[in-house]
């Protein structure tokens, strides 16, 4: 996604991957194409490295690449970060079915819930993504304000994961995954609390994870 929150997360990830060996340096950001000031928004982002509509006056790293085709944006990727308004998730998932790489992991930063018409009950966005794309999902939520995070002010966040054992298959990668979405300026004051259904609690300080 490339709205306010999506652009902020793209900025964080693109900055952090430059210091992580296990991640490709290119960060694709799916952009719903719009015409701004007579030009395509994707062209503006890729040339000026700024989302002038949804995150003005904040520079994006040059390795953030705006891509107007959602299928093209996920090609070759095995880590998907979902940051789009919840009302667009159904259409996005329909486009992505059958187009996802094997062994892909996902994390949702989407606020809100959806309604499962077949079962006549609410459903979590992360559960919907996992069901439709058949990938394990985590969820990131917190008392975060996108513009403050973009300015690298102190923030907190919590990641929930019902399939935490998936990540423990490669603990080094798990730590780097957490580092990927940490704000650079968190430093010694930062932490991520990971909660799973198996009641595994971990705290990540200075990119190091320890069981507590």
From TrEMBL:
Top-level lineage group: Eukaryota
Span of domain Glycerol-3-phosphate dehydrogenase NAD-dependent N-terminal: 1-161
Record carries keyword NAD: yes
GO molecular function: NAD binding; oxidoreductase activity, acting on the CH-OH group of donors, NAD or NADP as acceptor
Keyword terms of this UniProt record: NAD
Keyword Membrane: no
One Pfam family here: NAD_Gly3P_dh_N
Protein name: Predicted protein
